């Protein structure tokens, strides 16, 4: 990283005038968050815009967009609002942590507070579990159950663990993710919620109250009176359902070269095992369906030299390239945001080929 850079990488930003969503390259410095357009696989200089962090307020988690649960909201001193979407809960929280630190850089006490995790939690006396569940059922501001898939089976009217943790924090029922997990475990113990599917059910065997509920985008839960498992009929089982039934191993934003036009676009890549597939999604779209993907069985993955432009690659790319060759000899050229990130992706993919 360059001197003075606290964090950099891809985030999806909502436009100010037309509220569309576009991927931008963000660079966080002590007082400023800069963002750049990406053309031909390289960030365009000068920056497209800058967010002054002095006097900024940050909201994370931000639940203002139902189909975009991984948002950070920044509000500047001039009341300009910025909505930024990360590729995973972990990445969102890492950005929020660093941005909060940059906002409070002149206040050492505030920065120190960010590092303190509360290890005990008691429900405030004026709030009952019944009150929380009533709020969860609220049609406008509550948790909205929807169909979710785990290991090839679809479960109606469920929600994922990390979404409930976000909701509890956002509604001020908990001050940290650990508190929210403990509170969600209490809701299960009192039979307001129940786990659905193998991942969340398996966690119940843990002895620690805070570990019985999973802050996880793959763990499913439902209201206690709700759903039955709905097995897909033969007509509904498609190749994509099988592909998407694997366990998520890694996910993140990467730039990918198109096959026909050879232009570079940022996609959210999701690596799954059992079965081993690499899918990619268009982060500017709200529907959570892959726009492409391929099996990793029999595939080859390798880093490409950063000196010059490798054969098969078009555009003035920034480097950190790697290539995946599938079993049917299709070549995918992919660009990571750093050498370290490239190495992590290559190692993760190699384990599944």
TrEMBL record:
A GO molecular-function annotation: phosphatidylinositol-3,4-bisphosphate binding
One GO cellular component term: lamellipodium membrane
Domain PH: 4-104, 247-353
Keyword annotations from UniProtKB, A to Z: Acetylation, Cell membrane, Cell projection, Cytoplasm, Cytoskeleton, Membrane, Phosphoprotein, Repeat
Short name of one Pfam family: PH
Topology versus the membrane: Peripheral membrane protein
Principal localisation: membrane
Domain DEP: residue ranges: 139-225
GO BP, sorted A to Z: actin cytoskeleton organization; intracellular signal transduction; positive regulation of plasma membrane bounded cell projection assembly
Compartments in which it is found: Cell projection, Lamellipodium membrane; Cytoplasm, Cytoskeleton
PANTHER family, A to Z: PLECKSTRIN, PLECKSTRIN-2
Entry protein name: Pleckstrin-2
Phylogenetic classification of the source organism: Eukaryota, Metazoa, Chordata, Craniata, Vertebrata
The encoding gene: PLEK2
